[in-house]
Structure to design on (389 residues):
């Protein structure tokens, strides 16, 4: 995995920041406070500070994946200016302070625990239906390129990140079951579900065009082959034996317990590997379906690009491939970006969890018993553990 992949997209850059905070114990230090101050200045829709304390304000845990604090006088000064555009000089000063804090942060050796925590938090704050938040705006600035590159080189060189650029683990595929649901049946041999998804997208495109609501409402912002079709979605197990599908979840519903079940994958299946942004673009170029009118509102807000949009026609993809796997490094590089497909059209990889594989064949089957998992965040780093009760 090349370090440049971690710098290209908003999810990769967010992971690098979170690793710097998590692994260096900077959570209580200058880097955290300065990023928060810059976030409030740059966020087009900043969150309302919550819970005043004697030392300042306390943020929700899901802002950076942990609790953060800022002196109350500074928070009040920032809050007064929220309704107006930030002063350019104030923004420049805030960014310079972040860069200085990055430069003074000593990065330790990469641990698997810290890397997993940073990755999970970066995935959990992904959003494709509104503008980038202040932290993502900050991390995309040119001034942050070199500080983030230092972190990217450290992460990319770690053996703990080797699996991020590996193909699907065919002998270790597990589906997550939430809220007591049953496993999703395999796609039938005629691929009825995928044909129905194509029909669904075509109908929504026509409705959006006829009713002229394109760009005015938030709709189905994902491009993964998920709802409303049904088909197995799986991911591998981590070295500690816990399922990746529990740890790395976009737009989750706050699940704190769930079950996993193994999916048996026979040899010889045709699996398309999304190993980078170019591979996703290639899939869209070879099997395009237009989604301009139905996706425009969400994808324009999150990418600031307006124009024709396409995504893969999954029914057409399934005629050539039995499954599609998204590598973690590719997710960090591509997710949330406007990626050109043709001179006119672009695409967005959205709503696809890292390492997830979608299966388009009835040759896979579930085996074994369900395993129950519970979330443990006692040390502020989320881990999934087998339910011993």
């Amino acid at each position: 995995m090349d370090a440049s992949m971690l710098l290209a997209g908003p999810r990769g850059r967010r992971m690098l920041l979170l690793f710097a905070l998590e692994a260096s114990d900077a959570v209580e230090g200058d880097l955290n406070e300065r990023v928060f101050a810059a976030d409030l200045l740059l966020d087009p829709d900043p969150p309302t500070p919550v819970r005043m304390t004697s030392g300042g304000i306390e943020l929700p845990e899901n802002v950076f994946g942990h609790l953060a604090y800022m002196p109350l006088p500074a928070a009040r000064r920032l809050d007064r200016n929220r309704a107006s555009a930030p002063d350019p000089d104030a923004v420049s000063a805030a960014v310079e302070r972040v860069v200085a804090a990055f430069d003074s942060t000593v990065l330790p050796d990469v641990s698997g625990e810290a890397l997993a925590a940073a990755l999970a938090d970066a995935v959990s704050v992904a959003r494709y239906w509104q503008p980038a938040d202040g932290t993502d705006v900050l991390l995309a600035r040119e001034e942050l390129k070199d500080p983030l590159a230092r972190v990217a080189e450290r992460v990319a060189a770690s053996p703990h990140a080797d699996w991020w650029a590996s193909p699907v683990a065919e002998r270790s595929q597990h589906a997550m079951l939430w809220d007591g649901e049953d496993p999703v049946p395999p796609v039938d041999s005629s691929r009825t579900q995928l044909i129905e998804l194509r029909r669904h997208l075509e109908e929504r495109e026509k409705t959006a065009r006829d009713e002229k609501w394109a760009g005015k409402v938030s709709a189905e912002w994902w491009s993964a082959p998920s709802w409303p079709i049904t088909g197995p979605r799986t991911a591998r197990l981590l070295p500690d034996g816990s399922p990746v599908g529990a740890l790395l979840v976009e737009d989750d519903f706050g699940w704190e317990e769930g079950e996993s079940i193994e999916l048996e994958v026979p040899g010889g299946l045709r699996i398309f590997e999304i190993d980078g942004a170019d591979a996703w673009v290639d899939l869209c170029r070879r099997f395009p379906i237009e989604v301009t009118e139905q996706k425009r509102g969400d994808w324009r807000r999150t990418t600031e690009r307006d124009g024709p949009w396409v995504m893969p026609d999954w029914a057409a993809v399934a005629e050539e491939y039995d499954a599609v796997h998204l590598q973690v490094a590719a997710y960090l590089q591509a997710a949330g970006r406007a990626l050109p497909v043709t001179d006119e059209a672009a695409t967005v990889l959205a709503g696809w969890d890292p390492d997830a594989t979608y299966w388009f064949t009835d040759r896979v089957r579930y085996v074994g018993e369900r395993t129950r998992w519970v979330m443990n965040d006692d040390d502020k780093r989320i881990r999934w553990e087998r339910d011993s009760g």
User: Anything to note?
Assistant: The CA atoms of residues 123 and 250 lie 6 Å apart. The chain has two domains: 3-165, 174-386. Confidence is low (pLDDT under 50) at residues 48-83. Residues 192-211 form the longest helix (20 residues).
